[in-house]
Amino acid sequence: xxxxxxxxQTVAMAEFLPAQASSNPPWILIHGAGHDHGVWTxxxxxxxxxxxxxxxxxxxxxxxxxxxxxxxxxxxxxxVLALAEALGHAQLRLCGxxxxxxxxxxxxxxxxxxxxxxxxxxxxxxxxxxxxxxDLAQNDPDQAYALINKYSFAPAEVLGExxxxxxxxxxxxxxxxxxxxxxxxxxSACNTWQDGLSxxxxxxxxxxxxxxxxxxxxxxxxxxxxxxxxxxxxxxxxMLVLAGxxxxxxxxxxxxxLEALREPx
Length: 265
Known about the structure:
Strand content: 15-25%
Strand order of the largest sheet: 1-2-4-3-5-6-7-8
GO cellular component, one term: membrane
Domain AB hydrolase-1: 26-249
Organism: Thauera terpenica 58Eu
CATH superfamily: Alpha/Beta hydrolase fold, catalytic domain
Mean pLDDT: 96
Pfam family, one: Abhydrolase_1
CATH topology: Rossmann fold
Protein name: AB hydrolase-1 domain-containing protein
Number of domains: 1
Distance between the termini: 31 Å
Radius of gyration: 17 Å
């Protein structure tokens, strides 16, 4: 782990360096609601071995980063841009999962001249969260974790029962480590963000939208308006639907996701 200070608070991140220096800007990997940098480890190791530089931070109030969770998507996006600046990266590539995809999109809209490539994984616009889940996260987090785990992974017939159980156990532990208050804040931020299409209209870099074929949380058809807006904004937009995956794409099909990010736009 690496530690720096942003706005006077300690930020923890994992950094993955390629064997040989690359002229490409680093990927900043942005985790989703109730998660931390650990969701990216397998993917980041693979991309690093393939020659990319990757930075996977814990957002404030998550993992080993200090402070309270940032309560809104725009605030998280500004924080990510500040992180890149503090690390000395004027140019960057952004990849976000679920809530992190909204943060990445917002950051690319705020600073289109800085973002050279954008990957939105398990995304939806708008990213509505059910009132039941919002209430459970606030008042009965154990039930919220169980509900999220139920829909985060492909069925056992696809993943295999033992693998699905292992993925769910790891995901439960990660959510418990962040705590119910952090999850509630994150879910509320997703549910209330209304600026997705206006952010997409400002994007000027190659963009890939990656969905899981079996995703019930952010289904494939939830990105139609986003894709249309991105195509009009920058033209260099593609969508990939990964077979055998639900919402937790990085854990379920890391090899397919790695290939998707390595493909030229």
